[in-house]
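Late entry, written up from scratch paper. The run itself happened at the end of the previous shift, but nothing got recorded in the book at the time, so transcribing now.
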Amino acid sequence: MFTVVIPVHNKAPHVARSIQSVLDQSYGNFELIIINDASTDHSMDKVSEFDDPRIRVFHRNEPGAGGYAARNLGIEKANAEWIAFLDADDTWSRDHLKQFIESIKRYPEAGFFSSGWENYKSEKTRYPDPFYAKYHQSSGNSKFLSFDDYLYEQVMGRSPVCTIVTCISKKILKEVSGFPTGKAKRGGDVDTWLRCVEASNGMVWSNHLGAIYYRDSINMVTKTNKFEAQCERDTVKLLLNRYGGQTNKLLKRFSNRRTVSAWRQNTFLPDVSNFTIVNKLFYSVDPIKNFSYGVISLLPNSVFQTVRRIVKALKLK
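Output as recorded:
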């Protein structure tokens, strides 16, 4: 029924926890594909400790940015109709796949499913994603979102999708050519979901917390790699040729938000030459706000680093 894909690159302290959460699923009709994305630590020693006939391991000789090439290899090797993804430093709740079975039965024509997830910073700091927090009490067992609904929630900062809680038809993934290998170091997953939801004419959100996203993990791409959101902008430009009216505006707002978010996240990275966003925004929507962001982005990254150091010093006093 399911192929589960876990890409692994230097996640030795976490990977066993991730694998065990899959093997502990209350619904057991799945295969687990582990992609060794050229790990140089003891990750694969941890993987080899598991003896389960549902596990298949494949190896890549060079690591791919964002794990996108590894996930594409997992898609290529998958035997099941439905492909679910999990990162090597995160975990699933025990009934995650069981909940997806129920949603698939309820929406047999859908090709894209997701659920809520819990963010973990520490044992005292755990909280659900914003979409789940807003809708879990009013959505029943599941909720269908049209393409416009999906774009609107993204624009409002309530993404109904995270890599570790996606379940997608292999047919849809093949149709959109999978993840953007070689085109992004970060953000390529969001670009993939955008293409998949559009190709599926919407998505289904299952009203359960399907995973724990550990934000305290080692070797996290989001903490080290520059983010440019170019993949998303390129996809939006192509989609704008197909859509007018409200969808057209939502696509532009989606692209603007991703671009501004990328620029803002880069200001937190030390020794990174950030990009300016002046020529990367659609000014036909929210022109005043976007003009303001464009002007601010002209300042060197060192300015933001200095301001943060000053604020931190004042707080310590």
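The chain has two domains: 2-222, 226-316.
(Scratch paper discarded after transcription.)
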